[in-house]
Structure formats: structure tokens, C-alpha cells
Amino acid sequence: MKDPEMFEQIDDLDQESRYLIHKAKEAANHAHANYSKFCVGAALMLEDGTVITGANYENASYPLSMCAERVALYAAAAQHPDKRITKLVVVAKKKGGKELVPATSCGGCRQVMLEFEGNQKKPFEVIMQTDDHKWIKLSSAQSLLPFAFSRHNVEGTKK
Ligand code: THU
Predict the structure, then answer these.
(1) Which domain holds residue 92?
(2) pLDDT at 72 exceeding the cut of 70
(3) Do the Cβ atoms of 68 and 56 come closer than 8 Å?
(4) 82: how many CB neighbours lie within 10 A of its CB?
(5) Which is nearest to 141 in space by CA: 122, 155, 124, 159?
(6) Most buried residue, 35, 77, 98, 124, by most Cβ within 10 Å?
(7) pTM over 0.85
(8) Helix (H, G, I), strand (E, B), or coil: what is residue 59?
(9) Is the CB of 129 within 6 Å of ligand 1?
């Protein structure tokens, strides 16, 4: 598949993706974003249809804050270690706001997504909203982080 696939609006996406956007939006309501006022929600689907969500959780000691994507990914790993992820959606809204605002995952979360793809030996789709308010769907987290550092560098093995 040619990454990214672009969609003008949510309605143009498939039903499963729209459902995950809805769940991610709900999760964003549970963000603890008292400092940035930027509420992020993530929802991922496992191969059996289980949905796991996460929201960003900030701390008065700013660097201890955690992104929504990683909250969801680590929760999935802890609760369903043997199930593969098939799709991850990230959305954001301003604290107190109703409408979604664009948010594309930070580099740290992209690196963590790659770790998960490596572990499960299968890519998963990533969906998010770009600055021009379009939705993009990637067939793999790899498309989000070219030339990434990986286990192959550490282990000295070839990709
Ligand atoms: N944030 C996420 O939750 N995910 C990202 O990929 C980027 C940023 C959060 C971190 C912080 O709580 C707030 O958004 C503002 O940076």
C-alpha cells in the first residue's frame, strides 16, 4: 500500500477506523492535561477486536508526563501480551473544547510504535489528523519514522 492514504473527512474512512476515532475522542476526555491544556486520546484495536484506549497524563514535573499513544500501547502490552495490534488512532482536542484538532504522534511515540511492530512481527495501521485537517492512514508505523534506530542496531543483525 502507498503510504499515506489521505481522507478529506472522517466519513470517508472505513467503519472500524471511525469507531476507533470515536473511542479515542472519548479517551481524550480523560486526559490529565492541566499544564498544556492539550488533550490527546489514543485507541488501538487488537486482532480479536478488543479496544484499548489511552490519554495523555501530565505531571507538575513536566518531563514525567506521558503521551496518550504510549499509555494505550503499554496498557495493551500489560493486559493482552499475546494479542497483536491491528490499528492505532490518535486524536486531540483543546481542554474544554468539543471539536478535534490536528495531532500527529511525537517522535518518541513513533519509536515506541516501531518497537511494538517489531515484537509482533506484523505492521499495524496508524490513523491521525494532519495540520491541514485531513486524515491520514499509514499501513505501518515504519512509514512514520524512516531510518529509525532499532533492535537490529543493538543486536548487530540485518533488517
Ligand atoms: N502528546 C501526546 O499525548 N501524544 C503525542 O504524540 C504528542 C503530545 C501530549 C503530551 C502533552 O501532554 C501534550 O500532548 C502537549 O504536548
Answers:
(1) 5-155
(2) yes
(3) yes
(4) 7
(5) 124
(6) 124
(7) yes
(8) coil
(9) no
